[in-house]
Amino acid sequence: MEILYFARIREDIGLASEHLALPGSVTDVAGLMDYLQQRGTNYHAAFHNRNIIRIAVNQVHAAPDHPLRDGDEVAFFPPMTGG
């Protein structure tokens, strides 16, 4: 799975993107955010206020309960991003 981070989330994590093989227990975007938060303090900081994080799965806006499949591209970004 390709994960993209934008703006403040990218700055908090220190990466623009990464490719991850997720455990079988991660079945939706909310589960992905739970998994990512457990990867370290930088991830925890990036996802601490989930209510303002916007999500896109395969370049289409999605909700936290959106199901995930192998090969999906998931992007996380704050409500407003700069150019």
Supply database-style keywords:
23% strand; alpha+beta; five-stranded mixed β-sheet; Ubiquitin-like (UB roll); single chain; 5 strands; 83 residues
Describe this structure in words.
By secondary structure, the chain is an alpha+beta fold. The protein has a single domain (about 1-75), classed as Ubiquitin-like (UB roll) (Roll), CATH 3.10.20.30. It is built from 3 helices and 5 strands. The protein has helices at about 5-15, 30-35, 40-45; strands at about 1-5, 15-20, 55, 60, 75. Strands 2-1-5-3-4 form a 5-stranded mixed sheet. Strand 3 (about 55) and strand 4 form a beta hairpin. The longest helix has 9 residues, at about 30-35. It starts with a strand and ends in a 6-residue tail after the last strand.
String of helices and strands:
EHEHHEEE
User: What is the percentage of strand-forming residues?
Assistant: 15-25%
Count of individual domains: 1
Report the structural category: alpha+beta
Number of helical runs? 3
Low-confidence stretches: none
Describe this structure in a few short sentences:
The chain is of the alpha+beta class and 83 residues long. The chain has one domain (2-77): Beta-grasp domain (Ubiquitin-like (UB roll)), CATH 3.10.20.30. 27% of the residues lie in helices and 23% in strands.
Helices and strands in order:
Blueprint: E1 2-5, H1 7-13, E2 17-19, H2 29-37, H3 41-46, E3 54-57, E4 60-62, E5 73-77
Parallel strand pairs: 1-5
Antiparallel strand pairs: 1-2, 3-4, 3-5
